[in-house]
Every structure is written in structure tokens, then in C-alpha cells.
Specification:
single chain, alpha/beta, six-stranded parallel sheet
């Protein structure tokens, strides 16, 4: 039985993930969280093999969350399930310690397969993301300016691009 934790700020998404995993053979949803702090508390209190994690939740940058989780629970496998289909997000998640990366456009069967793969010690990346990685290997090695940003700087950059005010960004990042 694979014990899974779910962390997503949308109740409907958590309900859907729980339904998919509980209806698949060999899975137990051991707990759920809705933001960064509740995710850390859940991970500390609940034994599990896999955390299905949304990158964009209130209270904490997803990449920083992965780093903290891997520092505290190195054996816990993190499968990122996100709306961000861009390679830059996947690269940052994997560098932080994620074991898999899947977009929310994925089918239920792909989610089940991805959780199974990362629980068994493997690494999972969706076919679309694998194609992006392969194509990037054929591109010149020059680094784009946004790729040189730290994870924190990239989070601020993303929030500015999303139209958040400086006050909203400061509150979200606790600065």
C-alpha cells in the first residue's frame, strides 16, 4: 500500500486527487494540506512515501517548500502536480529535490503511474515535459536572464508578471 499526502490550495483538486487515488488499487491517502505551512505540518506528522505537491500555493514558494521537505524528510518522494507546463519550473523543482513533475492537464491514469513510479524510487516526467527537455538540448547553451535568477528572485518575478502589487508580494513572501 502506497501512502500518499496531497498538498493543493484548491479543495476541488484535492477531492479529485483523493478520489482518483482511493479508487486505484494499492493507494492510501494519508492526509491533505492546503498551503505551505499546513504542508510542512502534515509532512512532519504523517508518515508517507509520496507527497503530491502543487507548486503555487499560498504561504510558501513551492521550490523552497520542496527544499525544506527534503531537508527534513529525505526519504519522502515529491511528485509535483502543477499548472505550470514550462520547463523552467520543472528544472527548479527537480533541482530542489522533486522526484517527478506532472501538469494538471494529465490524465488520471498518468497520475497513478507517476505516483507508483516515484514511490518505487524512480523519476517521473510527463512526455510533453520530456520533449521540452530534449528540444532544449539542441538549443545554444546561452543562459536567458530569467534562468540566472535565484528561486526567490524567480518567485518575485513570477508574481510581478501575474500582476500582484508590491504589498501583495511582500505579504505572500513574509517580508
Amino acid at each position: 500500500m502506497i501512502k500518499v499526502l496531497i498538498a493543493d490550495d484548491h479543495t476541488l483538486v484535492r477531492d479529485g486527487l483523493r478520489h482518483i487515488l482511493q479508487n486505484a488499487t494499492g493507494f492510501e491517502v494519508a492526509g491533505e494540506a492546503y498551503d505551505g505551512p499546513s504542508t510542512i505540518a502534515l509532512v512532519r506528522a504523517t508518515p508517507a512515501q509520496v507527497l503530491v505537491l502543487d507548486l503555487s500555493m499560498p504561504g510558501r514558494n513551492g521550490v523552497e517548500l520542496i527544499k525544506q521537505i527534503k531537508d527534513e524528510k529525505p526519504a519522502l518522494r515529491v511528485l509535483v502536480l502543477t499548472m505550470h507546463a514550462e520547463q523552467q519550473y520543472a528544472v527548479r523543482a527537480f533541482r530542489a529535490g522533486a522526484s517527478g513533475y506532472l501538469t494538471k492537464e494529465s490524465a488520471s491514469a498518468e497520475l497513478v503511474g507517476a505516483v507508483t513510479k516515484v514511490a518505487s524510487g524512480g523519476v517521473y516526467v510527463s512526455l510533453a515535459m520530456a520533449e521540452q527537455f530534449a528540444q532544449s538540448l539542441n538549443e545554444p547553451a546561452e543562459t536567458l536572464p530569467h534562468q540566472r535568477l535565484s528561486d526567490r528572485e524567480f518567485d518575485v518575478f513570477r508574481r510581478i508578471a501575474a500582476g500582484q502589487t508590491l504589498t501583495e508580494i511582500a505579504q505572500a513572501l513574509c517580508v
